């Protein structure tokens, strides 16, 4: 028998900036993603300040969910989804971020989306900010580097909490907020442009701006939790952390210490604030080593203490292996590290490690002791649409099978895990590279890296497999 609880939330996840398209429809303003060029691992994405005629901006097209949402949600219902994780585009509600009143056309669009979910018995799980912020706020204030964004985000969160208080129960504040700990997170997470390269993977880092921006975002997220619970005490509000857990390459104590520091800086730094309401003890050392002085508002400490989350959500795709040695083969992953000799990797150099998910679940539950949900997990791959319109993806089925078994083992360990939303359940634009070719979905979208195609939807083999998994509550994984 399956170890998954009867009410386990099986589903999938997408993000507005990667799937919706219709960037100039219904009063929507430009977001930072709407001026993020396409690219690949050999051609990094360019961060434009405004539209440049010689660049292609794939997020403006996405998978055209804006015009296909009824069809897409019906396909999710056919698979048996219990939950659908999606995000609201801030710029559909407040086009520049500075408006005093929300854009009614944008609010109505998400009314229609949530109504469609509810009609099919699917619980919406909604992220307030998923790698998307108004471009105007980046150009005028340098994004989250400025504390003024806290008040603007509070206004945005209040508007959507009030509007959808009877349609949405589960909320997340900021997607993968801890990626702001990394230089590549400056633009993607914080909407910050530091002086230096236009390529987001090659930014000239300014730790003062980065850590201040992250602090401002943590405060804004805590305010959102406070406001949301005041508007509807039944709201369940969670955080969202990018989990790329580290292993030491060897039992060399220096490698073990490096591994511990990776966990502290990339997971617990933000996780402790959001769950415990205060920075961990080692934050002072991080600030000192980076010559950072955090500007605190008078209410910040109290807000962080009061605005803690009800559950912990995270993404999990890979593990990292770290070492102090310089003679070990590099991993090929965007996040660095070295190659783990015990693991295979996908086409983008990400180590495939199902056992690491069980390890992660136990580490998080042991530290925080609050309910957990895996809101992103999946395999990016080059899928082929056959002449008969079928897509055979046994590699994805195998990947997901092993990770679901790992979750089952964590449940047997005693972890309180209440849901799983596989990432990119419908093919969408890659956040890292801007490609459509890096496909994750159960549902194939007929579009290429430049938006050419019919945008017709086709069921992959994994579609039928996941339908069976949900129908048997994780018992039948064959």
From TrEMBL:
Gene3D superfamilies: Glycosidases. It comes from the Bacteria. Keywords: Glycosidase, Hydrolase. The active site is at 376 (nucleophile). Its EC number is 3.2.1.86. It holds the Pfam family Glyco_hydro_1. One of its GO terms (molecular function) is 6-phospho-beta-glucosidase activity. Signal peptide: none annotated. Belongs to the glycosyl hydrolase 1 family. This is 6-phospho-beta-glucosidase. It comes from Breznakia pachnodae. The lineage of its organism: Bacteria, Bacillati, Bacillota, Erysipelotrichia, Erysipelotrichales.
């Amino acid at each position: 028998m399956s170890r998954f609880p009867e009410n386990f939330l099986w589903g999938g996840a997408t993000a507005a900036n990667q799937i919706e398209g219709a960037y100039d429809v219904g009063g929507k303003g430009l977001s930072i993603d709407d001026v993020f060029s396409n690219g690949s691992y050999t051609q990094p994405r360019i961060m434009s300040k405004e539209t440049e005629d010689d660049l292609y901006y794939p997020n403006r097209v996405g998978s055209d969910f804006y015009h296909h949402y009824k069809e897409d949600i019906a396909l999710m219902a056919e698979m048996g989804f219990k939950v659908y994780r999606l995000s609201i585009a801030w710029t559909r509600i407040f086009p520049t971020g500075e408006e005093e009143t929300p854009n009614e056309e944008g609010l109505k669009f998400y009314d229609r989306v949530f109504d469609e979910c509810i009609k099919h018995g699917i619980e919406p799980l909604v992220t307030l900010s998923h790698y998307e912020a108004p471009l105007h706020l980046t150009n005028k204030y340098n994004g989250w580097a400025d504390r003024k964004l806290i008040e603007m985000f509070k206004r945005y969160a209040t508007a959507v909490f009030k509007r959808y208080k009877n349609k949405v129960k589960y909320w997340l504040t900021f997607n993968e907020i801890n990626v702001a700990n990394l230089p590549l997170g400056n633009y993607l997470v914080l909407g910050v442009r530091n002086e230096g390269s236009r390529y987001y993977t090659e930014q000239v880092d300014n730790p003062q701006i980065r850590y201040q921006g992250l602090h401002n975002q943590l405060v804004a997220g805590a305010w959102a939790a406070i406001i949301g619970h005041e508007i509807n005490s039944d709201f369940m509000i969670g955080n969202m952390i990018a989990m790329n857990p580290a292993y030491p390459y060897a039992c060399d104590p220096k490698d073990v210490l490096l591994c511990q520091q990776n966990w502290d800086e990339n997971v617990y730094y933000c996780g402790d604030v959001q769950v415990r309401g205060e920075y961990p003890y080692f934050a002072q050392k991080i600030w000192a080593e980076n010559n950072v002085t955090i500007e605190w508002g008078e209410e910040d400490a109290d807000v962080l203490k009061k605005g803690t989350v009800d559950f912990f959500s995270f993404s999990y795709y890979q593990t990292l292996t770290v070492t102090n040695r310089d003679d070990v083969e590099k991993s090929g992953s965007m996040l660095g590290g070295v190659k783990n000799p015990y693991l295979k990797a996908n086409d983008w150099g990400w180590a495939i490690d199902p056992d690491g998910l069980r390890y992660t679940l136990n580490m998080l539950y042991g530290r925080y002791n609050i309910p957990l949900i895996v809101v992103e997990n999946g395999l990016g791959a080059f899928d082929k649409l056959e002449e008969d319109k079928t897509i055979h993806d046994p590699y994805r089925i195998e990947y997901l099978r092993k990770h679901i078994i790992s979750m089952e083992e964590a449940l047997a360990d005693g972890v309180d895990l209440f849901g799983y939303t596989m990432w990119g359940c419908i093919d969408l634009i890659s956040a890292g590279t801007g490609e459509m070719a890096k496909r994750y979905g159960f549902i194939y979208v007929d579009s290429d890296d430049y938006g050419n195609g019919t945008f017709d939807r086709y069921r992959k083999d994994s579609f039928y497999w996941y339908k069976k998994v949900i129908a048997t509550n994780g018992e039948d994984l064959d």
